[in-house]
Amino acid sequence: MDSDLEKIRERMYNKFLENARSEKKMNGKVEPLTLGDRDFFETVKKQKHMVVDFWAPWCGPCRMVSPIVDELASEYNGKVSFGRLNVDDNPMVSGEFSIQSIPTLLFFREGQPVDGVIGYVPKEVLKARIEKFLRN
Fold this sequence. Notes:
Elements: H1 2-23, E1 25-26, E2 29-30, E3 33-35, H2 40-45, E4 49-55, H3 60-75, E5 81-86, H4 91-96, E6 104-109, E7 112-118, H5 123-135
Parallel strand pairs: 3-5, 4-5
Antiparallel strand pairs: 1-2, 4-6, 6-7
């Protein structure tokens, strides 16, 4: 009975993720996935290339980076997945990666962190880092 419940739970979770991803595609615009302690590792492992924005609502530089991340999510749709993780609400993942300054953007390749940017940087700098990330 437990295995049946686990299978149902797994199906519902996968359907939830699929719906969340499709709902984020509006008017040709793609928004980053909202990640949390519960789904972070499973979601990141499923992406070939992913950039995760570690942020908090009270953080001024985070609010400056946020629209840039939104633009990049649309520009790199199909090449790079983007996600956001609120560090205040998700201390487990934040601690796992020793996030001490925000915003922090971590670049993951097949679930493994390979690069990162701390603090506000202009869009052109982020694009250059993403292009380098995709080449390597």
